[in-house]
Amino acid sequence: MPIVPIEPTLSEQIVEDLASKHWSEIPNFLPTQMAKELYQELKQTYREGEFVRAGIGSGSKFRLKSEIRGDYIHWLEEAHLSDLQRHYWAQIEQVRLALNRAFFLNLRHFEAHFALYPVGSFYKKHLDQHQNVQERLISCVLYLNENWTPQDEGCLRIYQTEPHLSAPLPPNADTPYLDIAPQMGTLVCMRSDTVWHEVLPTKRPRASLTGWLRRENMMF
Ligand code: OGA
Ligand code: MN
Q1: φ/ψ (deg, to 5) at 54
Q2: pTM of the predicted protein model
C-alpha cells in the first residue's frame, strides 16, 4: 500500500472529534477532482449492472427491508481497486494508524462499498455495529455529490450522543441532532457502536463510498 500523506491536521481533527463527540466531518477530505472521478467510477460500475439492493444485519440475520433502507450497493474488493480507489484506501490508512495510536484501538481492516440512494429512498435511524458481530468500530462515509442543495434533502442526520455513554439509547423526539449534506469529497467518520444516525429521504440520487474500519474477527 503506497503511503499517501494527508495533512496530519486532518487525522488529528478526526481523533479530536471522535474523542469529544464520537463523530467528525471533514470537508474536502478527498480533493474535488478525485472525488468527481471516483463518482464517474461509481456510475460506470452501476451501468455495468454491478449494484444490488442493500440489506440489514449480517450472516443469518441478513434481511432486505425496504421500510428500513432503500439504497443499492457494490462492495469493493481490495485486490481489484482502481488507482483512484487505492489512493483513497491509502488516505484511510493514515486515519486508521492515527486512530490506533490515539485510542490504542486494534483496527486491522477497511471494508467499503459504493452506495446509491434513488430518489425517495432513505435509511432509518440505526447504529452500524451488527448485533451478532461487533467488528465494525469506525464508520467512514465519503460523499460523491456535486453541489448538493438544501432542496435536495437526503442529509445524514446524526443524533448527538452523550460522549460518556457506551451504549446510548435509541434517539427520541427530544434527542438533539445535526444534519450533514452529502457534499462531494466530504468525509464523515463516526463510532459504529454509539452514534445513532439516519439518511433522510432524498430528492436527488445520492452517491457515496461507505466503509468501516474493523478490528480482528473476535470469534477465532
Ligand atoms: C450506512 C449509512 C450514511 C450515509 O450505510 O450505514 O448510515 O450518509 N450511511 O450514507
Ligand atoms: Mn449507518
Answers
A1: -80, 150
A2: 0.93
Is the pLDDT higher at 87 or at 161? 87
* Probe residue for ligand 1, chosen from 197, 200, 204 as the CB with the greatest number of ligand atoms within 8 Å: 197
Place of cell 439516519: 198
The conformation of residue 132, written as its DSSP 8-state character, comes to S
Write out the residues surrounding ion ligand 2, Cβ under 5 A. 128
Q: What is the largest CA-CA distance in the chain?
A: 48
Residues pairing with 115 in the sheet: 73, 208
80 CB-near residues (< 8 Å, 6+ apart): none
Total Cβ atoms within 10 A of residue 92: 23
Determine contact, residues 209/115, Cβ cutoff 8 Å.
Answer: yes
**Residue 115 CB partners (closer than 8 Å, separation 6+):** 54, 71, 72, 73, 207, 208, 209, 210
With a CB cutoff of 8 Å and minimum separation 6, the contacts of 85 are 38, 41, 76
Percent of the chain with pLDDT over 70: 94
**54 is written with which cell numbers?**
442493500
Q: How far is Cα 133 from Cα 129, in angstroms, rounded to an integer?
A: 7
